[in-house]
Structures are given as structure tokens and as C-alpha cells.
Amino acid sequence: MTSPTEATAGGKPALVEARGVGKFYGNVPALTDVSTAVRAGRVTCVLGDNGAGKSTLIKILSGVHRHDRGELLVDGAAVSFSGPREALDAGIATVHQDLAMVPLMPIWRNFFLGSELSRGRGPLRRLDVAAMRATTRAELLRMGIDLRDVDQPVGTLSGGERQSVAIARAVHLGARVLILDEPTAALGVRQAGVVLRYVARARELGLGVVFITHNPHHAYPVGDRFLLLSRGRSLGEYGREEIDRAELTRLMAGGSELDELAHELDRG
């Protein structure tokens, strides 16, 4: 297992780095001494079961909650976000499971929801629908997403397609770090593959990606580094060259605890 952060590899600071980060709710520790770094053109997979601390880490990185201990750095400078807007301004975008999309609205409208383009001034100001349609189509194609019609309601898309639209939207709006919260959790094998393809595409475009998941079979194909959490603590961070899929799955499933359980259940 290598150093947890590799913060200055290549002479450049990480886009985002957590150093010994901790978070408490009252006297209850939700996260204790967790470190990781997110680098440009790399996918950091954060794995853990329910209650492992993944959601808490997301909230700290995305500015929803402030950390109580340790340091959070952006481009090597310590920060303490007062809200999600500050994280967005720093180029950190989060795509949540619910996607914050309006099913009955067309794809282009969802793509620009809250950031609509307009033309004209004063009482003559109007939404620039043509520009938003053209931009949506072009940005989706840049991500390798070829949808039939950007005027179709977003609710008619598959789960994987909706996730890909959300990823493309974050990239277009200037994200340098893309946090994906369990994007494949509710998807079948084929649709999960669609999302993983666009995670890889975001990496190719130079983004730093944080891929939150409880599924090592989804993480391993796209991951460059793997941070394992359990009960709010780090079980270690591994480079892809340091761990194979089988070992990642074993650690994710409980490691020695799973071995002991298998022994107890053995009827041989």
C-alpha cells in the first residue's frame, strides 16, 4: 500500500486533498482520520458498505458540511467551504443519485437548469433556446453521448443515459473535480456499463473523478486508486497496481470477518 495521498506527484498539488479529515455529529464520530487525494485525469474510487462514511466524505468535499478535524486542500491551499456554492466555484461538482432533474422537461432544459442562456436586455430579454439546444447536443457529443433528440423529455431516457447527461452537464459548467454518488447503484449490468464508459471519458478529458460505490466490480474497471472505508475509518488506499479485483472484493466484503463467517457456516 502506498502513501495515502500522493499529493505532489509530478510536482503539482492535487486538485483536492483530504488530510486526516474527521467529522463529528455531537459526540458521535462519522469520519475519523481519512486521507485521500484527487488528481487530474485520475479516478479515485471510494468504497464502503452502508454506514462506512462515504456520504459524510462527499458532504465535506462538496461543501455541504465542514470538517471538524484535519485539513481540506484545493490546489494545495487549505479551505473550509461554507456551502456547496463555494465548492462549485472551486470547480467541484457533485452528481447525486437523484440527479436533480425534472422528468417532464426536455433534455436541453435539464442540461441548463438554473444556468439558462438568454439574449437581449431588460423587457426584451428572452431565453436563447436555439443556443441551449445546440450547446446541449455539442456537449453530449463531446462526451461521446449521441442521443436521438435533445427535445425529448429527460424522463424517457434510461437510468444510464440520465446519469451520462448529468455528467456532461457538470463538465460543461466547468467542473474540474467530479464527485459521483453511487451512479450505478440502481442500474442493471448494461446501463451500469453505459455510466462507466462516461466516467472513463471524464478522466480522458482531464477531470479528477471521485466515484463513490459499494460495488468493487463497478469500481475496478475504471479506478486508478481505491479508498476503502469502514465505520468512518480508512482501511487503506491502494493504487491499481497494488491490488487486484479479487482482493479488493475481499476487503470490501469484510476481509478476515468474512473468512471467519465462512468458517462458521461451513457444513463440510
From TrEMBL:
What sequence ranges are listed for the domain ABC transporter? 16-256
According to its UniProt entry, this protein's organism is: Marinitenerispora sediminis
Q: What is the protein name given in its UniProt record? A: Sugar ABC transporter ATP-binding protein
SUPFAM superfamilies registered for this protein in UniProt: P-loop containing nucleoside triphosphate hydrolases (SSF52540)
Q: What is a GO molecular function of this protein?
A: ATP hydrolysis activity
UniProt keywords (A-Z) are: ATP-binding, Nucleotide-binding
CDD domains per record: ABC_Carb_Monos_I (cd03216)
